């Protein structure tokens, strides 16, 4: 992964790689969602307003969210690679990534929902309504009950190889990795870390929804 995401490469190339990686992560999860949602695939195949709204949702909401979260992850990964040279443990960047991705996922959805209300008349054109539905929507995304779940798991797909690489290089996490069967420790720990981020997002969204009444 270091060859694709390095602080030494040109910024435009870094952004291009993030975009391509985001598209590659988003496409299969999106396809799975379309196939699993009852009646959704035939509705899209029929074209018309349903297809138009779907494309707009993915282009204006899904791709920006996945790209932004992946960009932060890949940038932190690149920082971690440089820090290894200066003997700084990359586990610090994993913890930072887990925190940032939850905040970014929530914040970007809120921002995009407000813009959608202004630009496309979504949520009856009401910014207040747009903000009120963010938390309830994201609280169910972990269960793949709405399209936000696609974006959530697409960011997980993008982060997994980076987490595995960083965990393998972390001296502080080595004892924990040793608790897992041989050669599976880093991958298992990475999955647990990503699961923690999903649970954290769900709990934070549930709390916000509860406070909203």
From TrEMBL:
Instruction: Locate the transmembrane regions by residue number.
Output: 61-80, 92-115, 150-167, 188-211
Domain of life here? Bacteria
Q: Which UniProt keywords apply?
A: Membrane, Transmembrane, Transmembrane helix
Q: What's this protein's name?
A: Uncharacterized protein
Q: What is the organism of origin for this protein?
A: Tritonibacter litoralis
What taxonomic classification does the UniProt entry list for its organism? Bacteria, Pseudomonadati, Pseudomonadota, Alphaproteobacteria, Rhodobacterales
């Amino acid at each position: 992964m270091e060859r694709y995401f390095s602080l030494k490469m040109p910024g435009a190339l870094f952004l291009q790689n993030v975009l391509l990686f985001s598209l590659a992560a988003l496409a299969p999860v999106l396809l799975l969602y379309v196939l699993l949602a009852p009646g959704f695939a035939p509705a899209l195949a029929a074209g018309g307003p349903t297809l138009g709204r779907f494309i707009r949702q993915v282009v204006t909401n899904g791709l920006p969210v996945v790209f932004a979260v992946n960009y932060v992850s890949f940038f932190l990964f690149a920082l971690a690679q440089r820090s290894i040279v200066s003997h700084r443990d990359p586990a610090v960047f994993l913890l930072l990534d887990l925190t940032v991705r939850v905040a970014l996922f929530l914040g970007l959805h809120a921002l995009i929902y407000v813009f959608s209300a202004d630009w496309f008349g979504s949520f009856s054109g009401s910014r207040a309504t747009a903000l009120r539905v963010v938390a309830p929507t994201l609280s169910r995304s972990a269960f793949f009950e709405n399209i936000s779940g696609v974006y959530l798991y697409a960011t997980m797909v993008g982060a997994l190889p980076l987490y595995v690489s960083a965990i393998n290089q972390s001296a502080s996490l080595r004892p924990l990795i040793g608790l897992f069967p041989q050669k599976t420790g880093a991958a298992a720990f990475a999955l647990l870390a990503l699961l923690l981020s999903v649970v954290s997002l769900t709990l934070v969204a549930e709390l916000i929804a509860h406070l909203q009444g």
